[in-house]
Amino acid sequence: MYAARARASLRGWGGVGAMAVLCALALAFVLLLPSTQSPPEAGTAGQRAAVGRQARAGECQDSEAQQRTLSPSGADGETIDAIKARTGAKRKLIVGVDQNSYRWGYRNPNTEGAELEGFDIDLVHRIAQDILGDPDAVQFKAIPTSQRITAIQDGRVDMVVRTMTITCDRLSQVAFSAPYFKTGQQVLAPKSSAVKGYDGSLAHKRICTAAGSTAYTKLDADRKAGDLPSSADISATVPNQLDCLVRLQLGEVDAVVTDGALAASQAAQDPTLELKGAAFTTEYYGVAMKKDADDLVRRVNHILVDYRAHGWQASYDKWLSATLGKDSAASEPPAPRYLRTS
Description:
With 342 residues, the protein is α/β, with parallel strands linked by helices. 32% of the residues lie in helices and 18% in strands.
């Protein structure tokens, strides 16, 4: 039965399920990828921002974590100077990304050289254009979900643009830009499954999440609090979120919990799957950088002001509107809120 379902699922999106298996194995290694993408449309106007009030230590709440970022500035600083000081072929922005999240950051097998494409990739090119004057001055590094923070802390990348949710715990380890996307956790399961959503139907079900993800943190906390059936098995964790899709296709787990934006893209890859129930959290993606890289954080926030007005919508319409809708809550950029520093 499992083999038959796996074969059926691999017919979705031109055999992308098969590619997913290869990608999942390949991502046991951190890959260095060249950039060949063309630049997204850029603009000059910005969306008006609200100003957040800086909270005292210990007061951070995940629901307000996206407000904890520095105000925009177009000025260079120590971090940006070091990036610009790189010479020759090394004069590039080094960015951690995903290479197998369909429509976010993935290698398109239908392009020459299987180029990296997607919503996150468009944003990376826009940042490179502003800082280095060349949208293709990017050195991409494929980073597993579980290694996003360590890649930043170890200096392997200048930033991570990889569907990374802003949370209080992560803010204690890295710095984030203002949010560039709003989403929420959802359940992905076979259409024939008895799972109805994030509820009692998950009892005795095997649930897959990515290690280090906000999905696992939520499930673990809810099961301990009694808000998730104690019989729900959340032991299946994987380095990359796409590995959960492969395990679901092979019948090794019964459901996947991940960001709805990613789950929708995976459902588009495999017609035997669907989202179950509504989103049960509210989360915001941000660009992650080193905690002391204040000048880079301010610069990215400055870039996002312009990108929200000119570029964001075109990228959304191209990559995400088919799965998330043209009028959904995710179809416009979230308003930024900045720390009050005086």
